[in-house]
Amino acid sequence: KENFDSIPDLEFNPIRGKIVHAFFDKRNLRQESDGLVDEINFEDFLTIMSYFRPIEMNMDEEQLDRFQKEKLKFLFHMYDSDHDGKITLQEYRNVVEELLSGNPHLEKESARSIADGAMMEAASICVGQMGPDQVYEGITFEDFLKMWQGIDIETKMHVRFLNMETIAHCY
């Protein structure tokens, strides 16, 4: 994990810790168990990077759907820090506070209000109208899929890799 400290582009990312954590999360490494590994090898690194590959033009509808779900599952795991299969209000607050921590004009209480409002919106999308005695336990992966429906995750979550042929032509 300490090797990630030397990656300059991660240094100022507000959710740097979550990103690094995701590389060592057994769920993202497609292992059956929960928890974290102490180190990753090159194959593990490629497994994580595969979540960020761009879509391929020859993908059929089923492949595209599976591809989108894999990306969203990776993102879901970043939010679900206690690995219980739900993103609770506190977990969501933590992420929002981390994301907004670089803004000196936004107080912590404002970040909490933003997270609370987003969680209420999630409850209304996923559960619908709730009674006064109902409590929304948290966002399940199925809820997460509903919330991201219609949003183009492929263009928001990818890394563009250099084509070596292009580099060869630059000499």
UniProtKB/TrEMBL annotation:
GO terms for cellular component: cytoplasm; lamellipodium; nucleus; ruffle membrane. Transmembrane segments: none annotated. GO terms for biological process: cell differentiation. The keyword Lipoprotein applies. It is a lipid-anchor. Residues 67-102 form the EF-hand domain. The keyword Magnesium does not apply. It comes from the Eukaryota. Keywords: Calcium, Cell membrane, Cell projection, Cytoplasm, Differentiation, Lipoprotein, Membrane, Metal-binding, Myristate, Nucleus, Protein kinase inhibitor. One of its GO terms (molecular function) is protein kinase inhibitor activity. It is found in: Cell projection, Lamellipodium; Cell projection, Ruffle membrane; Cytoplasm; Membrane. Belongs to the calcineurin regulatory subunit family. CHP subfamily. This is Calcineurin B homologous protein 3.
